[in-house]
Amino acid sequence: MTVFDPPTDSAARDGLTSAMTRSGQVERELTHDAARFRVLTGDRPTGPLHLGHYLGTLRNRVRLQDVGVEVFIVVADYQVITDRDSTAAIAGNVLELMADHLATGIDPAVTTIFAHSAVPALNQLVLPFLSLVTDAELRRNPTVKAELAATRSRGLSGLLLTYPVHQAADILFCGGNLVPVGRDQLPHLETTRLVARRFNERYGSGRAVFQEPDALLSEVPLLLGTDGAKMSKSSGNTIALRDSAEQTAALIRGARTDSERTITYEPIRRPEVASLLQIAALCAGSQPELIAEKIGHGGAGELKRVVTESVNEHLRPLRHRRQELAANPGYLLDVLRVGNARANEIAEHTLDEVRAVMGMKY
Ligand code: TRP
Hints:
This protein is mainly alpha-helical. It is built from 15 helices and 5 strands. The chain has helices at about 10-30, 50-65, 75-80, 90-105, 120-130, 135-140, 140-150, 160, 165-170, 185-200, 245-255, 270-285, 290-295, 300-325, 330-355, and strands at about 40-45, 70-75, 110-115, 180, 215. The strands form 2 sheets. Strands 1-2-3 form a 3-stranded parallel β-sheet. Strands 4-5 form a two-stranded parallel ribbon. Helix 2 links the parallel strand 1 (about 40-45) and strand 2. It starts with 9 loop residues before the first helix and ends in a 5-residue tail after the last helix. The relative contact order is 0.14. Mean pLDDT is about 90; it is low at about 1-5. Tryptophan binds near residues 40, 41 and 43.
């Protein structure tokens, strides 16, 4: 789950406003013309997915799949080594991601899940794409900037500097025209749009070889981890989908609240309590205000009981499926290999077209 600050300069604000307007239109078109859209989205395999991922993105992927949109999910394994040295955990985490997706309802018969490293032609697109951006443009990307600040002592790897361009290749290789993102990810999508536009202008003589994708903005409430900080894998404050009901109960029991007895939904003044109420509401299909009212003077103990029950109740069937899937890594690998094969077929076709357009077919 990501936090975002409202953009401060007016150009960024205009960009956000038009992205929001466009995203709203797309959302309406989705229901009656799903076949027009191809969604590409994905995750870095850095660990099992948690409740924040599930409520924020996984559920939405399944929804898109189920309304008939063709969905591609990239397991961005090469992105893991943008900022860490060891590859030891990657293969295991790839299987965790597969289990999380299939358990949530991703259907491999209609949705393609593939690993970035298994699709050479996709990776080759990165080279001509890199010719279309300057290093100054890459350094202006807010995520690259933030990472640079965070990794100052070890330096910024070339892979990290260029990662908005790999993402452009992830999206454009399969003709992705819709990318579900949080607001903080909009700058990456801008790079993809820029790459598509410049490719068409420079190498395609104005022919629309690549389509500029739109953002599908997800309005996900900010969920906090059990320590009151932003919920994230690296903070160790998450409830993972693979956790048991007992582990979930223990995690929520230890969650930070505040000392006021009466439970109220006040996101600004009482962020920890509000986040727990949000989680319960999202899982139970209710409103946080209603849940707060019901708990009333029951205090933090009753709040935690309600949250635990709604999370466990909601996740029970998913966790049941997930356990079965996790016990069968051979099946998970098979599904990935089928996805890889399909992604390769498409990527080779795209690369072939790129070679032709660039006059480099020998
Ligand atoms: N960077 C994304 C993440 O950290 C994963 C990702 C890779 C992605 N390629 C993408 C997301 C293309 C959207 C589109 O989770």
